[in-house]
């Protein structure tokens, strides 16, 4: 067992844990990151970075390399499967409020890779992999974490604070007994990646397109090497049925008939809408998926988590230097409000827009979207919200 170390422990080396680590290091605070996996995940999860996230990453020196490995997308669309384009939103309208007036399409592992390289270059940073946080406790001066190495050996860490950035099934959240209320969305989400060039096959298609349909909505997203197709899927089917190659081919053909599709990657997953009842528990803080989950329509999960990490680190740095620890309560009030009122509300609205079956309501939604892009003031207000800039501006109003 080690003595109390004057450092911050972070459970989880996902995008949120690693951005928190780099942010704290920038403030001169030593960190130890404990990661259960043997290596950082290289899976196809988040692929969209919104403008203010890029602004934050820029301040941490993490944006340039990411931008060089991604695709800049100033435009994104709402489409209808039968009617085609409904409205094209232009992030270029935000050039006066962000240095990055576009969504960057880049896989999240490119960020974690860059952040890890940064940690490796810092003497005050330790990243330990193959170690699973199992138990967490605290007293008035410190936090104690029991973690198990891959070989079964249990190691105990004591430090000043702990950030739980250990994802949806967060052990840190469970250890604190904080409730995680919400719901599970009925449909399964099926994500398929293909080298097929939808941009060359569908005229006027933006690199990010949300496509509504009363029977089967979908999302088309371009990444640097593949196009990703996201379909809602009947939860009564087994995983084998959902991922069956013949069934997938049928769905791809019904979207756009042609040559057989090469599927480079496929995954089916359940989606939850949940927000932790507390983000601050004494010296323990929750951030990212450990604190909130939402559907991926709008690409706000990881982005919101990175905004948590930056907000949390800024306040923790002030407390580290002597500010009243009650300041951390503002982290919770600000970021929980965003999770509920912006991220969750917007993601649920996007889902409602995509799968509305009532023809009159669909028409009304579409008319509203067309009217929004036709009016420069409304268009700007819409992209201020969808880009998450507005949610950051509104934080000032939260005491
Ligand atoms: C298919 C898909 C598409 C998505 N698309 C988008 C998108 O376009 N935009 C967007 O913003 N979001 C998107 N998301 C959501 C996004 O991927 C998550 O919000 C993001 O990964 C959360 O980051 P995190 O660091 O909080 O958690 P994670 O990325 O889950 O990282 C948690 C880390 O903690 C580690 N860990 C877990 N338990 C322990 C433990 N007990 N001890 C030590 N380590 C532990 C895990 O191994 C992992 O490395 C998508 C998600 C999916 C599944």
Strand and helix map with partners:
Blueprint: E1 4-11, H1 15-26, E2 31-34, E3 48-49, H2 51-59, H3 63-68, E4 71-73, E5 75-80, E6 84-90, E7 103-105, H4 108-120, E8 125-128, E9 131-138, E10 143-149, E11 154-164, H5 171-176, E12 182-184, E13 188-194, H6 198-201, E14 208-212, E15 218-222, E16 227-233, H7 239-242, H8 245-255, E17 265-269, E18 272-275, E19 280-281, E20 284-286, E21 292-293, H9 301-320, H10 327-355, H11 359-374, H12 376-386, H13 389-393
Parallel strand pairs: 1-2, 1-11, 2-8, 5-14, 11-20
Antiparallel strand pairs: 3-7, 4-7, 5-6, 9-10, 10-11, 12-18, 13-16, 13-17, 14-15, 15-16, 18-21, 19-20
Helix pairs in contact: 1-4, 1-9, 9-10, 11-12
The chain binds flavin-adenine dinucleotide (FAD).
How would you describe the overall organization of this protein?
- By secondary structure, this protein is of the alpha+beta class.
- It folds into 2 domains: 4-73 and 94-182 and 272-397, FAD/NAD(P)-binding domain (3-Layer(bba) Sandwich); 184-269, D-Amino Acid Oxidase, Chain A, domain 2.
- It is built from 13 helices and 21 strands.
- It has helices at residues 15-26, 51-59, 63-68, 108-120, 171-176, 198-201, 239-242, 245-255, 301-320, 327-355, 359-374, 376-386, 389-393, and strands at 4-11, 31-34, 48-49, 71-73, 75-80, 84-90, 103-105, 125-128, 131-138, 143-149, 154-164, 182-184, 188-194, 208-212, 218-222, 227-233, 265-269, 272-275, 280-281, 284-286, 292-293.
- The strands form 4 sheets. Strands 1, 2, 8, 9, 10, 11, 19 and 20 form an 8-stranded mixed sheet that branches. A 7-stranded mixed sheet has the order 6-5-14-15-16-13-17.
- Strand 9 (131-138) and strand 10 (143-149) form a beta hairpin.
- Helix 1 (15-26) packs parallel to helix 9 (301-320).
- The model has no long low-confidence stretch (mean pLDDT 95).
- Bound molecules: flavin-adenine dinucleotide.
- Flavin-adenine dinucleotide (FAD) is lined by residues 11-17, 34-37, 41, 45-48, 108, 132-133, 165-167, 171, 191, 269, 288-289, 296, 299-303, 305.
């Amino acid at each position: 067992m080690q003595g109390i170390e004057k450092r911050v422990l972070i459970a989880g080396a996902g995008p949120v844990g690693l951005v928190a680590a780099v942010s704290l290091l920038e403030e001169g605070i030593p960190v130890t990151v404990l990661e259960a996996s043997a290596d950082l995940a290289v899976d196809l999860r988040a692929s969209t970075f919104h403008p203010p996230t890029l602004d934050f990453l820029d301040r941490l020196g993490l944006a340039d390399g990411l931008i060089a490995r991604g695709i800049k997308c100033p435009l994104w669309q709402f489409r209808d499967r039968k009617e085609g384009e409904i409205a094209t939103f232009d992030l270029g309208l935000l050039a006066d409020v962000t240095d990055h007036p576009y969504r960057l399409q880049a896989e999240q592992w490119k960020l974690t890779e860059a952040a890890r390289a940064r940690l490796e270059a810092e003497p005050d940073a330790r990243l330990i992999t193959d170690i699973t946080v199992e138990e967490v406790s605290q007293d008035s001066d410190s936090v104690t974490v029991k973690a198990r190495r891959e070989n079964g050996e249990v190691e105990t860490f004591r430090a000043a604070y702990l950030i739980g950035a250990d994802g949806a099934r967060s052990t840190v959240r469970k250890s604190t007994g904080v409730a995680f209320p919400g719901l599970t969305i009925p449909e399964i989400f099926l994500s398929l990646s293909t080298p097929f060039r939808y941009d060359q096959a569908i005229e006027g298609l933006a690199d990010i397109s949300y496509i509504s349909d009363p029977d089967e909505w979908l999302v088309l997203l371009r990444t640097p090497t593949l196009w990703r197709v996201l379909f809602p899927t009947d939860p009564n089917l087994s995983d084998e049925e959902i991922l069956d190659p013949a069934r997938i081919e049928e769905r791809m053909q019904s979207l756009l008939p042609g040559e057989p599709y090469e599927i480079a990657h496929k995954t089916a997953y359940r989606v939850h809408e949940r927000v932790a009842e507390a983000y601050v528990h004494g010296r323990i803080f929750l951030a990212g998926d450990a604190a909130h989950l939402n559907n991926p329509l709008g690409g706000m999960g990881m982005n919101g988590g990175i905004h948590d990490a930056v907000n949390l680190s800024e306040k923790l740095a002030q407390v580290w230097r002597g500010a009243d620890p009650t300041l951390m309560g503002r982290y919770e009030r600000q970021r929980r409000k965003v999770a509920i009122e912006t991220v969750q509300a917007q993601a649920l609205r996007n889902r409602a827009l995509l799968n509305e079956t009532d023809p009159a309501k669909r028409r009304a939604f579409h008319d509203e979207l067309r009217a929004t892009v036709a009016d420069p003031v409304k268009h700007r207000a819409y992209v201020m919200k969808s880009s998450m800039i507005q949610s950051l501006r509104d934080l000032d109003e939260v005491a």
